[in-house]
Amino acid sequence: MSSSRSSRAVRGGLAAALTLSIAASGAPASAADDDPLIDYPTFKGASKSLDRNGAADLILSSGDKVRQRILRLTPGGYRQSGSAWSLSKLDVTQSFESAFKVYLHHFRPGADGIAFVVQTEGPRALGGWGGGLGYRGIEPSLAVEFDTYQNSYDPSRNHLAVVLGGNPDYQTDTAEAPIPLFGKPFNARVVYDAESSLLSVYVKALSEGSIEQLVLEREIDLAAHVRDTEAWIGFTASTGTGLSKQDIYSWTVQGSRA
């Protein structure tokens, strides 16, 4: 973990234990509405409510015992970028929680990873390939990276980062992922507490007995940063000379509709 960027990274101890116990109990981590803003247990029927750009597409999964409709951000070719945005805009003055299942796989080493992004450019927004992770140049924006390739500005090939302003060369906060991001599916959760202006990022392996782990925290006034009270939310991803099939299997957002 980069000491110059980790002032709000995981600190362990009682605070983390309390957070995990709340999550395990099923209590909501954000003061969101009861009805989900976005609810894709699979992506069946999502074609009319999810804008896809570049290499992103909705496909049937392969190699699974039960095939299902998934969001594939990149299909594993060279120098690809893809993005997908919900057409239901989010009220970023309110708390929200976004949970999703990710599977990054194909050739080893994989590249470059995915990002969960909040942005006000629009539902056609698509950024650069390679280290751009599909969001480079999308601004104003907040990106949470799940990065599987070590560029010159990255701490490792298995890290998370918070990036403000659409430039992955300048990562505001970074932390080593406590689980492998490439080769095995995992769950992720991004929580924004509007009252305390605190963004929290969690990951969880899918193996039996695994627990959710808090990886990053960042204080941010999200509405002030994206310069609006409402924003598009979704995912971006990219490849370069390293390749990955980069898939989202499920996605829910508990929050307030704009």
What does this structure look like?
By secondary structure, the protein is mostly beta strands. The protein contains two helices and 16 strands. It has helices spanning 13-25, 222-226; strands at 38-40, 50-54, 57-60, 69-75, 81-86, 90-91, 96-105, 113-119, 141-147, 159-164, 173-176, 186-193, 198-205, 213-219, 230-238, 245-254. The strands form two sheets. Strands 1, 3, 4, 7, 12, 13, 14 and 16 form an eight-stranded antiparallel sheet that branches. The longest helix is centred in the N-terminal third of the chain and has 13 residues, at 13-25. The termini are far apart. Residues 1-33 have low confidence and may be disordered.
List keywords for this structure.
eight-stranded antiparallel beta sheet; 16 strands; 7% helix; disordered N terminus
